[in-house]
Amino acid sequence: MDRVKKIAGGTIFLSGLVLILILLSALMTPRGEVYNIIDVEKKTSYFSKEAKDTIDVIIIGDSETYSAFNPLQMWKEQGITSYVCGTHAQRLCDTLSILETSLETQSPELVVLETNCLFRYAGVKPELSDRTLYEVSQYLPVFKYHNRWKQAFSVMNPTEQKKLEKEHLRKGFKLRTDVVPYTGGEWMNESDKRKAFGEKAEEYLTKIYELCKKQDIELVLVTTPAPDNWTYAKHNSVSDWADENDVKYLDMNLNVNEIQIDWAKDTRDGGDHLNFTGAKKLTAYFGSYLKDNFDLTDHRQDEIYSSWNEDLKNCGMKF
Amino acid sequence: MSYHLMDYFAFFLPVVLIIYQLVPQRFRPVALLMANYAFFYMISGPLVVYMLFSTIFTHYIGLWLENVSLTAEVEGKALIMKKRKVLVFGIAISLGILGVLKYFNFFGQTVADVLALFQVNFVYEPIRFMVPIGISFYTLQMISYITDVYRGTQKAEHNLLKIALYLSFFPTIMEGPICRYAQVGEELYAGRSITFENLKFGYQRIVWGLFKKIVIADRLYATVSHVFDNYRDLDGSVIAFGVVCYTVQLYMEFSGCMDIIIASGEIFGVKLPENFRQPFAAKDASEFWRRWHITLGTFFKDYIFYSISLAKPVKNLAKKVKEKLGRNVSKFVGPTIALFGVWSCNGLWHGANWTFIFYGMYYFVLIFIENITEEPVQKLAQKWNINRESSGYRMFQAIKMFFIINIGELFFRANTLQDGFAMLGKIVTDFHISELLGKLSSLKMDVADLVVVAIGIVVVAIVGSLHERETKIREEIAKWVLPVRWGMWYAAILAVIMLGAYGTGYSIVEMIYAGY
Amino acid sequence: MNELLEILEEIQPGVDYENCTTLIDDHILDSFSILSLVSEIEDAFDIEVLPAELIPENFNSAESLWNMILRLRGEA
């Protein structure tokens, strides 16, 4: 009898535990696969503060995006409303997740995808150092997303909070003025080589493409000038995909002279990312490219968009 | 494979437990041995042959020592000399394997460095040795068994299976505790059934160990590596913070894994010796080492400290000193020489690196000072009417120990000895607390991490003070009414799952700050 | 026996050696005092104490110490 009681007790205890974990999983799981849940949620929570249906261009990708594209400058020069939804070392599964959430509040004309993230692993890699944990987390995602509670604490860090507010005011652009020159030579020597996309990247790129198509949004691929990470082989692979799917592709590594990038001054880390002066040149170029190639409305005279002029005054940047 | 991974406590251990329980009692030792070797093989692959050899060798030396005693035609001194030869052979081979695998390159490089001082050009090419898992630990177990048989405190074991189980028990293979044959030999072989109580209490302690390891220690990892690798660019206050973080990390990590290990033994009905007893409550350095990595300390005490201090040459030296300088000096001779031996071994055992040797010498000097100042301090205290049991004095000792322990761990963790001194120098000469407060949330930990670590430390401290009062916490909780008891264990398990610094979520945090 | 108690008192004063049976278990004698004790009794009783004798069972009380001394004397 005692034995039965013990076994019953143990079973009920464990069943209760599993039940709690199932409930927590339901609570903690984002839709779809997400790699960096903390960054994704930070980005979407700020982006959702933008007035409904006011953003015409969503720029998305990894750190290249927020280093190179300055939406307020484009506002000033072309009257285009854009927002940078890029996050650090973004994987394409996170790109998709941010886009899905973004499209709930905005209906942009264009989605501009920076291509550097195509060459990164696109999903959540199976954790090989602890197979059991990985397998269990497939059924109980709380093991994957348990760290989401930490977000609640970010309000407790005023410095961090201020930084994020500022970034939001600049529509996702990160102001960096450090200068570390790029001293290498030409990096875009023409060749026929192809560099394969990261694992699962094409699968996610197709999903992003289809999502845009369904919502009647045009997808554009762009590459920012970055001698440190870009090659002609990568250019070729992106070109191939763009041609196949009839998507516009702009590789600005081929236009650095036109953009007048000065590698002695315009990069903050020796040619991986542009700094503020680099971004200024690039944004001027990219803004006119958008103006010339797409049918985007100039909202500068529109009363509804007056807050953009306020932001321009308060952004602490001069163009 | 590692004890804090689900692969271990949610897969390997349960599978072994089920098989063990299903097998008839007389086959259980064999089942356990197979589990041990499977575990060893998963980590070290074919290097399992080292374990096989060591097992057979240890068994054989035991029998040989017994045989010498039984068949000896000589008695007394001559017999001891004969046995001693076997002992020396046994220890030499055990240590020889360990020495070649772990220290060969260190000595090679040291020889090259010394020759360089004399302008001799000799380049040492390091050899890559494959080191089997746990060799530092099971080698000490071999030595303790052989020595005990030699001393006659342990009967030579005839059953090879028992020796094999003793040297390879899978929960202890990776990081101890260093067991004596007399402690665990029979229990490992008994093949006792797993009881519901042992299973329950065992897994409860595993949860506790995981809390220390995953929730606290792993959370500090990024900060600690950052500080020790980049101390040149950091303020002394930040370095000091990083050092304290390391001490906490090391304790939580080692003692947390030890909880998991001892709990695993408990489930099999094997009582493994404890390795930690609230080390931060120690009042001096020698007590610290009776509370920190206890089984290593007692190993050194029983097999090195006593052996050296009771050795003939040491005793003779002490006698000579006594004749010349009197008892008050001579009584320190034996223990000091022995102490030097112990701490040289302690330093070297941790690894072939000058930082570890310095760490050993650091504690040698500290404990030596404690020994010779004990009497004068006692007299002074009496003269000045200081109560050494008062809370004020205890507070003073606690603060003293805080500095002693952390400075020790600084050198223990420093990348090189020079780095260690440079870090200590910066802490002393370049210390601005405002720097630390300003940077606190950008030191690879966010506010959430700091809060969790702080709460975690408080919880561990409370549990520690209960242990200090010899409260049996799990037994006490078992007496609570069911809803409270279950609620408490659910909370504990969920705390580990939700607050644990593991999985993709956590590596993300590292990467974010690595990018800045 | 009295001689032994005197030695003990000299090494670590203020302990009730006649009745205490946990000299080691309660850390009343640490390894340092054990060694002083050994060297004293070796001289006083003309015996040799080997490392193997340094186990708690021999050192936990004055009585067990005395028994060890008698045994070693008999062997010598």
End-to-end separation of chain A in angstroms reads: 82 Å
| Run of helices and strands of chain A | HHEHHEHEHHHHHEHEHHH
Helix content of chain C: 55-70%
What value does the Rg of chain C take, in angstroms?
A: 11 Å
Under the CATH scheme, which architecture of the largest domain in chain A would be assigned?
Answer: 3-Layer(aba) Sandwich
Question: For the record, what is the CATH homologous superfamily label of the largest domain in chain A?
Answer: SGNH hydrolase
Shape estimate of chain A: globular
Helix fraction of chain A, binned, reads 40-55%
**N- to C-terminal distance of chain C:** 19 Å
Greatest contact between two chains: A-B, 44 and 32 residues
Major beta sheet of chain C, specifics?
none
> What is the fold-level CATH name, i.e. the topology of chain C?
Non-ribosomal Peptide Synthetase Peptidyl Carrier Protein, Chain A
Q: Would you write up a description of this structure?
A:
The complex is a heterotrimer of chains A (319), B (516) and C (76). Chain A folds into 2 domains: 1-30; 33-314, SGNH hydrolase (Rossmann fold, 3-Layer(aba) Sandwich), CATH 3.40.50. With 319 residues, chain A is of the alpha/beta class. In chain A, helix 2 runs parallel beside helix 5 (92-105) and helix 4 crosses helix 13. Chain A has a 5-stranded parallel beta sheet. Chain A has helices at residues 2-28, 37-47, 63-68, 71-78, 92-105, 131-139, 142-145, 151-154, 158-169, 201-214, 232-245, 256-259, 276-293, 306-314, and strands at 57-60, 82-84, 110-114, 218-223, 248-251. Chain B has 516 residues and is mostly helical. Chain B has 2 domains: 5-193, no CATH class; 195-276 and 414-516, no CATH class. Chain C is an all-alpha fold. Chain C has a single domain (2-6, 17-72), classed as ACP-like (Non-ribosomal Peptide Synthetase Peptidyl Carrier Protein, Chain A), CATH 1.10.1200.10. Helices cover 57% and strands 0% of the residues of chain C. Chain C is built from 4 helices and no strands. In chain C, helix 1 runs antiparallel to helix 2. Chain C is globular. The model of chain C has no long low-confidence stretch (mean pLDDT 83). Chains in contact: A-B, B-C. At the A-B interface, helix 1, helix 2, helix 6, helix 7 and helix 8 of A face helix 1, helix 20, helix 22 and helix 23 of B.
